[in-house]
Design brief:
The protein is built from one helix and 17 strands. It is an all-beta fold. The strands form three sheets. The protein has a six-stranded antiparallel beta sheet, with no helix packed on it. Strands 12, 13, 14, 15, 16 and 17 form a six-stranded antiparallel beta sheet that branches. The chain is flat.
Length: 187
């Protein structure tokens, strides 16, 4: 058990029988009324994001997830299958847990899969991935920095804006959270 005010970003807690990952934390309330803690959390089961409010000294259950290094092997439409790199055991992970990040999965790619009570509940993608550009547009678009950008389609089908010097066949680095171009991989 921990105090609600100790539930920092990234920590996993249990409240009312539900498991949540803490996404953010804010403090409020007047000194006389006591400290109020507002937590922005994501339900591990269904990925829904919600807000929880506690008094600073309220207690919540601290949950430890088991983390395993896995290799993505295939998708059958309902589940994505991962293999534990140490035991070679295969685990189905529902598409609802993988979510929109499924486009970053390539056969053989290494991923961290988090388990709670023997079942997969979360996937941790690398923050930055290297991926191939399959085609580029010729048009110019102005980005927020004023630098000219063009549309590119990546090997996973995702479209992003890239600098003009990027060509078809280039390998680039992409931020998986913002889905933005970072850099070109040097050959």
């Amino acid at each position: 058990m921990i105090k609600a005010e100790e539930a920092r970003e990234g920590r996993v807690i249990q409240v009312g029988g539900k498991i949540y990952k803490v996404l953010g934390l804010e403090f409020g309330g007047a000194a006389k009324a006591g400290r109020i803690v507002h937590l922005k959390v994501q339900n591990i089961e269904n990925q829904a994001i919600t807000a929880l409010t506690f008094h600073g000294n309220d207690m919540v259950d601290d949950v430890t997830l088991e983390r395993y290094s896995m290799e993505y092997i295939y998708n059958d439409g309902a589940n994505y299958y991962f293999m534990n790199k140490e035991t070679y055991e295969q685990f189905p992970v529902p598409t609802s847990i993988v979510g929109d990040s499924a486009s970053y999965l390539k056969e053989g790619s290494g991923i961290i899969v988090e388990f709670y009570d023997g079942r997969p509940v979360n996937i941790e993608f690398p923050r930055i991935i290297e991926i191939k550009v399959t085609s580029c547009a010729s048009g110019i678009k102005e980005g927020s920095s004023g630098a000219p950008f063009k549309e590119a389609i990546l090997e996973n089908g995702m479209e992003i804006l890239v600098p003009q010097f990027i060509k078809e066949g280039d390998i680039i680095k992409v931020d998986t959270q913002s889905r933005k171009y970072i850099d070109r991989v040097k050959k």
